[in-house]
Every structure is written in structure tokens, then in C-alpha cells.
């Protein structure tokens, strides 16, 4: 998916080049390279050939600034659509395989169940992790999420949900109902296996 260049990125690049955001060179730069992915990969040759007034020295400065920006940009998740709890397990299990403490992770999804972001919400002890709904939904709202999937591990290797696991899930579901962001599932990861609270029938607020 093409991404238009955010204002903050434009401003940072202009400042690093000692240019005003609305200067001729900056306007031409963003006109020739209107998408972030194009601009980030621009070469000195492309810059000197396509932007009037940009010589070798200025092109070198722009490429250096873009290189720094690229190194600071967080890696993007691949376009990953969640169709089942097994998809969640395959995505998250590798990073939790040897974890000695509980990790509570949220997957933030768009309306097509494609992951927008994956965030570690809380880090706990060997057998407990305190999760605050406000932090979960602050992150969800920040990313304009349509829905979320919760994931956490049991370092003991046994993924059976505890009463506390079910309780926090229902608290999150209640908050999500008020806010308008669905909690689709809570997947608990153990030793080479997982349990989905949705598949277990534990995602109903009426139970």
C-alpha cells in the first residue's frame, strides 16, 4: 500500500537540510517523490536529474538525510491477515517461545482483519501479568483500529486459561463495546500449542 509522506517527516527532512518546508526545493522534492517509499529510495542521480536547482552537493545532503530517516523508521509488519487463531499463533509464538515471563501482546487490525500494528502492552512475572484496559484501548484508538486480538504466553507451557485470563478478557470486551472496538479473540500460547478463548466459547459477556 502506498503511503503519503506525513507532515512530521516533511518537517524533519526540511530542518535537516536547513530548508523551509515550503521552499522551492522541498516542494519539488515532494512533488517528484509523493510517496514515502519512493522518496526514501531516491538516489543522487535521480535527485539531480529531476529537481531543478539540486546539484551534487545538495543531492548528497538529501540522500544522507533520507538514509538517517530510513534507519530510524520502525520496521513495518508485512500485510498479514488474521483468518484463524492458528494465524495468531504462527505470528507470535516464535518471539515468545523461550520467554520466562508473561508477555501480553495486542494485535491491532483494520476492517479486513489485516494487522496494523503489534504491541507489547504489559510484561509480567512467571505466572501473572497486570493489564490495564485503558492502555490497550489507548493504543487501539491511536492506530484507528477496527478490532484487536489479545495474545499472552504461559511460561509454564500449559496454555489452559486461568479465571483471571477470562476475567481480563471480559473486561476488555466490555470496554471495547463502549468504545466501538471489538475484541475478537484472546489466544494463550504454551509449549508448542495454544488455546483460543473464542474457540473455547469464553468470549461471551453473558456467561
TrEMBL record:
<keyword id="KW-0862">Zinc</keyword>
<keyword id="KW-0479">Metal-binding</keyword>
<feature type="domain" description="MPN">
    <location>
        <begin position="81"/>
        <end position="203"/>
    </location>
</feature>
<dbReference type="GO" id="GO:0046872">
    <property type="term" value="F:metal ion binding"/>
</dbReference>
<comment type="similarity">
    <text>Belongs to the UPF0758 family.</text>
</comment>
<keyword id="KW-0645">Protease</keyword>
<dbReference type="InterPro" id="IPR001405">
    <property type="entry name" value="UPF0758"/>
</dbReference>
<keyword id="KW-0378">Hydrolase</keyword>
<dbReference type="GO" id="GO:0006508">
    <property type="term" value="P:proteolysis"/>
</dbReference>
<dbReference type="GO" id="GO:0008237">
    <property type="term" value="F:metallopeptidase activity"/>
</dbReference>
<dbReference type="InterPro" id="IPR037518">
    <property type="entry name" value="MPN"/>
</dbReference>
<dbReference type="InterPro" id="IPR020891">
    <property type="entry name" value="UPF0758_CS"/>
</dbReference>
<dbReference type="InterPro" id="IPR025657">
    <property type="entry name" value="RadC_JAB"/>
</dbReference>
<dbReference type="Pfam" id="PF04002">
    <property type="entry name" value="RadC"/>
</dbReference>
<protein>
    <submittedName>
        <fullName>DNA repair protein RadC</fullName>
    </submittedName>
</protein>
<keyword id="KW-0482">Metalloprotease</keyword>
